[in-house]
Task: inverse folding
């Protein structure tokens, strides 16, 4: 895979944006590998993502940033450009359940996920051996029921010292405190084991069994201070029948959780997710 | 298709039920076409459905009923036996949207649904011509906002005069009054255009768009006095993307509504749905 | 829905195409409603589709065609621009089975499909009454086993006299002759009741039952002289179990056939399907 | 989970089988946890699976076997009874790709799969470290192109010495020789990375890309001497688009392969798969 740049833009919708951007890219001789546009007609907002072959560009990324800032200002753009060789740094967080963690670690180990896993933070020791097999630092930070703040400060330090830009709650069984939600806004990804907004909060499979639904699901979303209500990145469901016990639902749900989290994380790492208000534009392939 | 009997049983779980039932069926020489069992381990409740070849049985259905009542009493069974040549009578109800109505009428017309459609009740005239092409009586009963009771009494009369045993709300845009929900308990089937319990009530697609979900769905359920909270028969979902407008979601949703309603109705007509508490056991094929 | 133009382009991949097109669109003040690009890296081929708000454009469609031809020639484009108010003319063809026909007619009747249905050609009389309820001309053209050519000539005349630009084989049980496949290249859409390339030819459900597959499907494709081997537009599948008889598989399959055909037809009518070699690029929403 | 017995029967269809079996179970006081029946009307063959609570039975499994043999003979049954505490022994086979292997090992390690993994046979060293972390014996048996027989004899010895009753080809890139297919009939499970019977043989994703299909799949089947044509246990598919490269298809396919293989293996281990002719009856939950 050759080196690429990913240019991601969101701004008020106006005539001329595409022309301005593609004109600039053309003048810098950019070969466009992938391009996506979306106009939210209701909110009059425009979203654009380009992947360009880095080799083809006649300027380096710093020059690009300087030059493009002029266009960006003109159109009031929220924007950034990332290089595929600046791999995102990811901190994973877990408790005792290993299915999501094992899934992400394996995808990373086999080069399917383009990122660096800089560590795993867990509130129990159970997963240490698995994580250390991958030669990844394991931080066991216990979160006592009656005094959680010091633990979250230790977590914050561990994250910041690792240089992580993305935090993945891979079935981490603690509610993230509001101040960390805000500090790492749209950088903390959670997997919730229900098809949100159904069954917010604890024990969603139990809630699903009580209601007698015929499908159970999982939701990958950014964590915000509003519990289970952050912008949704990805969702999926699986069929259940009366013959499935609560234990079966947990087992079936795990497969969906793994898939939905790894897809959502992939979209995030590839700069495919653009947040606007409480909704996402996901430029999936 | 040769004539069959459908024997449907639910009762407290005990050792010996299957032996007793299959022994009786065997003594009457019954050839079993389809058999399903389910034990709800938590509620200690047992569910069973048999389809038997009517030709093979050495007794007629009335004798069966008399004889089997003895076994049924012993095991405290809720039970019934239906003959495939006593076709259920179905009253359809609609407003202006035709997708569910057209779908059911076409399936009935092509002998896919084994029932008699005894009429269509609508609160507008829009669908009369379509219905009358099928030579089905069309009852237009307007439901004025400020005085609905006389309308529902007229609806009740139309249902009762038709001899309908099943009422299908095929996108009928009125809330069924409590007294009718109770009178026709587990006989009124509704299609709700969301993946319940998400987005209860009005405008579920609008609610889904606002929340930014990645899948929209439909739910077929029995109508109870508790709005959109009756026992769920069938559900399904379809993927939506940011590029889908509210109009697109409505269009995509219609396909799911039709499918889910027709599947749910089919299960009901074939005596595949057993209600216990607020949940269903659905012996789908 | 306001009037739009759809500009569809495919050409050898080169740097500058997007800039040239978006520059031109910008100079004509075009407000872009939807835009899609795709580069086939292997074949070095580029595909692009724009939907622009017709009101916003400072030139009419004829001027556009004249002006744009200059750019098109420079980049060796295969291209066209269609206006949303020039509705495609569709000829439907069927035999005796009505599920696909009923589905398309209902979608058209409720304004879901943006086209004019100019007629139905069938080789039996069975579907006449249904079609005529929609006030659509019905051409019954019998195709005798031993002398099919005159029938196909009559079909050709009926198509040409109707002005149809799209022909839909909605479970038409005759093989289209090669000369008509060539004459109406990429304008004849068929629904095949299997997940191609599995089970080419006749009786695919029977073949599927014999092989014991766990999913059955349907394939919407352009008809070419090579039987069931034309470019695939859309496919989908549904799960089957051992408890499903061949009759059940036919019934389940019909739902997939309808959905896949109507999706494929919609993509075609909205100029979302670009054929290159024997493959399609489908700019679905 | 308490101890259960699984009684699996297939035999010519006759009136009285269910009565005889359930009468016997009742006389031995068996509490039935799960029961499934299927009659193949065409082949006049009957299939039945019972799960009974071992504690409830008044006889031990050896007595059961002796007593039940009488009934079995009368109805010409193919049958067996397994105890949930006699865990099946599984030998895994792989080459270099780890996704299926990691998936199965993780499910086994977290007690999701009720079996003993007795070893991994691979024709390369790549996966040794992963396997040994799980404390499972790793047999590296190279299969030279020009003289494969000694290798397969070594494989046969490793299997037989391990006492394995099930062999799983978890993306094992060698064709199993006919004599081993026959020796381990219906005990060797393979995952093929296509929706069979489409794309038999090598490079199915490449074949799928060339044909331009819109869904790719995977098939879990018993290995027979007839390449990729053995009885199918489970299949599933995932949607692909023109924007997916061959690399993307491989990545997406892996997720389906893992799921389909683990589901198929689970069905096999729980005695849910009954083979008749070249087809399976799968009593999934």
Result:
């Amino acid at each position: 895979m050759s080196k690429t740049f990913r240019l991601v833009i969101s701004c008020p919708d106006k005539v001329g944006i595409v022309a301005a951007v593609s004109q600039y890219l053309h003048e810098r001789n950019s070969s466009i590998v992938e391009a996506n546009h979306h106009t939210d007609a209701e909110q009059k907002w425009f979203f654009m993502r380009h992947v360009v072959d880095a080799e083809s560009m006649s300027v380096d990324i710093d020059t690009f940033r300087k030059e493009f800032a002029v266009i960006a200002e003109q159109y009031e753009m929220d924007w950034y450009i990332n290089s595929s060789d600046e791999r995102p740094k990811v901190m994973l967080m877990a408790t005792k359940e290993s299915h999501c963690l094992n899934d992400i670690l394996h995808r990373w180990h086999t080069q399917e996920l383009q990122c660096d896993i800089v560590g795993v933070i867990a509130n129990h020791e159970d997963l240490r051996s698995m994580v250390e097999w991958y030669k990844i630092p394991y931080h066991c930070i216990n979160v006592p029921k009656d005094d959680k703040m010091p633990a979250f400060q230790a977590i914050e330090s561990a994250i910041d010292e690792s240089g992580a830009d993305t935090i993945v709650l891979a079935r981490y069984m603690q509610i993230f405190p509001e101040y960390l939600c805000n500090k790492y806004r749209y950088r903390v990804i959670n997997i919730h084991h229900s098809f949100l907004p159904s069954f917010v909060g604890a024990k969603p499979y139990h809630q699903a069994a009580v209601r007698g639904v015929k499908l159970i699901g999982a939701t990958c979303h950014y964590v915000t201070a509003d519990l289970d209500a952050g912008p949704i990145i990805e969702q999926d469901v699986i069929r259940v029948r009366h013959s499935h016990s609560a234990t079966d639902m947990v087992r079936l749900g795990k497969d969906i959780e793994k898939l939905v989290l790894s897809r959502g994380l992939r979209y995030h790492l590839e700069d495919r997710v653009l947040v606007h208000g409480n909704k996402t534009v996901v430029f999936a392939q």
User: Anything to note?
Assistant: The interface with chain D takes residues 38, 40-41, 47, 195-199, 211-215, 217, 231-232, 234-237, 241-243, 245, 278-282, 284 of chain C (CB under 8 Å). The mean pLDDT of chain C is 96.
